[in-house]
Amino acid sequence: MVNDLRAYRSKVEAYIRENSDYLVIHKLKHNIPLSSGDLNLLERMLFDQGHLGTKADLVTAYGEQPLGLFVRSIVGLDEQAVRDAFRDFIADSSLNAQQIRFVDQLVKFLTSKGTFSTEAFFEPPFTDIHSGGITEVFDMDKTGKIISLLDRLNANSDEVG
């Protein structure tokens, strides 16, 4: 059973990576907002041909999660798209060296993982910068701005219109 699950996951992830030029996956990787039509296309791409089983199979293997976020977690986010999303925040000349390292680590994380939950701020690699995580590196205002930017990044992987 475990080997079957591992093989299924490998198959799904390879398929998604191999099809990263597919318009919807490209949009997810480059932080371009999705329409309901995009999500329908993504669902058809993944499940209509039967190569990857059913949506229920996917949920069994990965747990319940929005399809766009799931795909983005596999392909990651384009580094320039992340930097563009954080452009104004990064341009803030009042950031100190530790804060700049923290933001750079966040960009690397998003480029690799594609998604982010705020719990990760209190785990390595962020606690390697400061053991207290984001709340010890930034004041509440800047912490709120970062969380708002992350919410917008995550929202672009779901239907927006």
Short account of what is shown:
The chain is mainly alpha-helical and 161 residues long. It has helices at residues 2-18, 23-29, 36-47, 55-62, 67-75, 79-85, 87-90, 97-113, 126-129, 134-137, 140-155.
Distance between the termini: 40 Å
The total of helices stands at 11
Helix proportion:
55-70%
Question: Unreliable stretches, pLDDT < 50, 5 or more residues?
Answer: none
Which structural class best describes the helix and strand composition? mainly alpha
Provide the gyration radius in Å: 17 Å
Number of strands: 0
Number of domains: 2
Beta percentage is under 5%
Task: Tell me, rounded to a whole number, the average pLDDT.
Answer: 93
Series of H and E elements: HHHHHHHHHHH
Q: What does the oligomeric state look like here?
A: single chain
Sheet with most strands: none
What would you call the shape?
A: elongated
Task: Characterise the protein shown here.
By secondary structure, the protein is an all-alpha fold. Helices cover 65% and strands 0% of the residues. The chain is built from 11 helices and no strands.
Q: Which properties best describe this structure?
A:
single chain, 161 residues, mainly alpha, 2 domains, 11 helices, elongated
Helices, strands, pairings?
Elements (H helix, E strand, L loop, with lengths): L1 H17 L4 H7 L6 H12 L7 H8 L4 H9 L3 H7 L1 H4 L6 H17 L12 H4 L4 H4 L2 H16 L6
